[in-house]
Amino acid sequence: MAADLSTIVKAYDVRGVVPDQWDEPLAELLGAAFAQVTAADALVIGHDMRPSSPGLSRAFARGAAARGVHVTEIGLCSTDQLYYASGALDLPGAMFTASHNPAQYNGIKMCRAGAAPVGQDTGLAEIRALAETWSESGAPAPAATPGTITRRDTLEDYAAYLRGLVDLTAIRPLKVVVDAGNGMGGHTVPTVFAGLPLDLVPMYFELDGTFPNHEANPLDPANIVDLQQRVREEGADLGIAFDGDADRCFVVDERGNPVSPSAITALVASRELAKHGGKGTVIHNLITSWSVPEVIRECGGTPVRTRVGHSFIKAEMARSGAIFGGEHSAHYYFADFWNADTGMLAALHVLAALGGQDGPLSGLVTQYDRYVGSGEINSTVADQTARLAAVRAAYAGQDGLALDELDGLTVSSADWWFNVRPSNTEPLLRLNAEARDETTMAKLRDEVLAIIRG
């Protein structure tokens, strides 16, 4: 029987439980398929600190090398470090990580040369089809001359490249607590921050893919409690939390209060627009705050609204020639970084903005955080389609409301909006809501959740 990859090949990556849903033999077939679909002579592979990552990534490398492709392994790295290698070396790349998912999961984020994303419509469906076919019939005969597998360290080059994009030379000294969540931030932060006027307080920098302290998903409020407490105890200027593969960053202010990723998007957008003479397109996904397009317009830029997900954002970045893009999930995309997402570069922007003036972070971000948001609230549901239809039925036809289905369902009024969309990786519906005041937001949030949860 051919393997059925439908449960692990998502909209823009591969993700599933190891070894129940996928394993090293399947990774080897995926490596061979990736080599064929990209028609590459060479590619670059990196992996995170999960126990299954080294074996899976090496199997993928073997599959590609058997097809005659020369493989450069950069070993332990963050996802944005893999994108750096793909961009700087101009090679297709594969990153082995399941990001913030629990320890038993693993996955692959793939890109073409220059960190161009590989999603369902840009090669992932073909990779899946080949791997499924070969799992039944056997992989095609290896190339007459197999490719080589070599190692290369890119960490110092990656760090230097990022520091070259943000001027931190004149900032005041800052005390920053960083919670790496036992993920790849513990590997990258010491090198990236080296030589900067920062008093670094590290938390959970030990690489451990079993996540012994908390899940490496800083969007869940439970996972930043330790960081918030430490920031207050240390009297720090700010705190930064990274997710498992360190491509997302989440910020808390000097009081330990979370700073909305939408506010960070608006802050970085204002800095990128200033760098580009007050002109440029900035992408934001449809669950970012109303503040984001407002700030972009105020700074002379053109906001473009898009659906959630890195491959969609990157495609829109390329199509529109955007200079920057932000998502409310704390992914930040930069034209100067091959349109790829890098939480580390966003963190450097925050440090530069804070260190370039005398006030606290809480004061700095007020101009970028104008409304009251619910944050993302996940509900496990048996039937995503049916529950989404129930929400739509509750609001369709009401006067003064606008409905759109760019990504899930968005309902907007003059005073509030909400979006409900299905997860691509888990049996969840995700709710984001925002309003002009706390009372309105709470009422709206509870009303929609009651429908979702039946």
From TrEMBL:
Cofactor dependence: Mg(2+)
- Where does the Alpha-D-phosphohexomutase alpha/beta/alpha domain lie? 8-135, 157-256, 263-371
| Protein's name according to its UniProt entry | Phosphomannomutase/phosphoglucomutase
SUPFAM superfamilies named in the record: Phosphoglucomutase, C-terminal domain (SSF55957), Phosphoglucomutase, first 3 domains (SSF53738)
Organism per entry: Streptomyces ossamyceticus
Q: Say which domain of life the source belongs to.
A: Bacteria
- A Pfam match is PGM_PMM_III
Q: Which UniProt keywords apply?
A: Isomerase, Magnesium, Metal-binding, Phosphoprotein
| Annotated coiled-coil segments of the chain | none
Q: Could you say which residues form the signal peptide?
A: none
Tell me its family.
Belongs to the phosphohexose mutase family.
Do you know which PANTHER family this protein is assigned to?
PHOSPHOMANNOMUTASE
Q: Where is the Alpha-D-phosphohexomutase C-terminal domain?
A: 376-449
